[in-house]
Amino acid sequence: MIHAWEEDTREAYGTGLLMWHCFCDRGAIPEIERAPANQPLLSAFVAHLAAVYLGKMISNYLHGVRAWHILNGVPWLLEKWEMDTMLCTADKLTPPSSKKKRRCPYTPKFIGVLRQQMDLSNPLDTAVFTCLTTCFYASARLSKFTTCTLQTFHPSTHITLRDLSYNQDRNRHKVTVLHLPKTKMAGIEGKDVYWVSQEGDTDPTHALQNHLRVNCPSEASHLFAYRVKHLHKPLTKTKFLERVGKAVHAAGREPLQGHSIRIGSTLEYLLRGVPFDMMKAKGRWAGDAFLLYLQKHVVIIAPYIQAVPAVHDTFIRYTMPPPR
Asked: Could you name the domain of life of the organism this protein comes from (predicted)?
């Protein structure tokens, strides 16, 4: 049953469970009262966390306690509306000191600056740079192209060279397709992500070709595996962020977070005029979460609110779809 949750979700839930037991230990809560946990105790737990942590993190921790109940066959006594009310309150009570700064987006120019700080004949550098350009132009999460640890790589759940293919439309526009073997929404069926060649020194096609030449990963190894002596190591998220961090520092720039890659990709394509619904499909959003990016960048909407009927109609069709 534990496989109902993805690996990264289980990690977050595990931290939440640890926080739960630390909270109960501190309050001398007996084991029998920890599961099933009653509403007053869970409310006190959430209130305790609200003084320090972000609302989203508290939500993960509370859901971790819930998952623990489910896995052990213990009734979960909270109704959904009670959980929602608790978490809404916790989010509003989050102190300003705990709130993260807005994530600045990656841009092609910023990626180009990082490229100048890397040696693309070096196995690790070329793997990291190729992974970066792939994530950016495929509008994909970094976690989908890296592994958590060296030991957690498995061909059935992580991308390999076998998952790389090419396609083209009727106008002979070539598209690079990468099949993600497993995703949260699609499960083991996976999903395809894709990009096309770009102009300039951030071209993902050239980066990938160089990576395959320098590192020569086997068909069954991690797509972004890099050579270390006579071995190939899968590219972990930690190693990726570590190397990018060094490049950022060497360039004298402010560090950005991993999720800023996907944010930057979304912004870049929208600024190029890619329609909202097409960007939603490319980014594989099940809901309208990507609209949060629009609220932070009014320049995206500006072309759609000018007195140009064709563009204006596109905006209206998306924001006010016809009745069914």
From this structure: Eukaryota
